[in-house]
Amino acid sequence: MDRHVVFEPGVHPRLGHRRVVPHDPVQQSKPGKRVTLVWDVPATTNAICALAVHLVDQGVERVVIESTSDYWRPFYYLLEAQGLVVWLVNANDVKQVSGRPKTDKLDAVWLAKLNERGMLRPSFVPPVDIRNLRDYTRTRLDLTAERSRHKQRIEKLLEDALIKLSTVATDIFGKSGRDMIEALIAGERDPLTLADLARGRLRVKRTALVQALTGRFDDHHAVLARILLDQIDILTTRIDQLTTIINQAIEAIPAAQAPSGIDDAPAPPPAVARLDEIPGIGLHTAQIIIAEIGLNMAQFPTAGHLVSWAKLSPRTIQSGTTTRQLIIRRSRY
């Protein structure tokens, strides 16, 4: 019979321990008798590596870990590196039965029983290169959101100074808007002079610009605007740096590149270019798609499984005459 090891979901963040339950259906003394062993393993590299060696020596064939915050990561990565088959399971699939006591030990034992009976299914965990790419794209997304928040702070600051530039200019951080803000910071207060900094199509709105740039922008607004603009520039530099790293990371993945042509036939474009051809998907979005779902579509049995995993296929729940839609949750790290 198979020998499995299960990690229970409860981890004390201060202690850094995770409880382990080897579920061994066969005992040397009494064949067929099930024995459950429970002990604590520190969430440190050396301890986990020692655990991996022990599990390999015991002939364990599968390790099941419940997806709980980020606590499962070191166990998953280190045990997988030792050649063990590791399953990451969704917490929604292994909830305790109502009325049962809730302890770390019982959670682990319950997880072991579900695994033994084949009632669990592994969640999608991409390979290392895709995981690294995902970290890059998510960090870029976070920095982009942070830059947007700083831009909103500057717009709020201008409103506080009675500068209504956003009512005239579509993008106050374009070339014209940036020049006007820089001039305000430098001490220019004449709305006519500021309006003359307009470029392109914004020049035809000179009268409206003069009215919008008439306000009470003082020195304390200038200090705050300078700090916020510098922060925006720093974030822009970091975002551009990440974009370069992301491009290099995708180029280093063989599966993302176009295969060579056969019989002088033109080779198809790389994965990013193919996704970019879809209406509504740009280069950045194509990179995010590759980072989130990977390049091996064999992990999704059908297109419907992929759509469901991406939360694009709500589940229908009908009870009597009531029908409602429920967003499908997935185990995501």
Protein model, in words:
By secondary structure, the chain is an alpha/beta fold. It has 11 helices and 8 strands. Strands 1, 2, 3, 4, 5 and 6 form a 6-stranded mixed beta sheet that branches. Strands 7-8 form a two-stranded antiparallel ribbon. Helix 2 links the parallel strand 5 (62-66) and strand 6 (86-89). Helix 4 runs antiparallel to helix 8 and helix 4 crosses helix 10 (283-293). The protein is elongated and about 95 Å long. Mean pLDDT is 81; it is low at 9-18.
Structural class: alpha/beta
Number of helices: 11
Q: What oligomeric arrangement do these chains adopt? A: single chain
What is the makeup of the main sheet?
6 strands, mixed
Number of strands: 8
The percent range for strand residues is: 5-15%
**Shape call:** elongated
> Using only CA atoms, what is the Rg?
28 Å
Low-confidence stretches: 9-18
The separation of the N and C termini measures 32 Å
Binned, the helix content reads 40-55%
Would you tell me the overall average pLDDT?
Answer: 81
**Could you give the order of the helices and strands?**
EEEEHEHEHHHHHHHHHEE
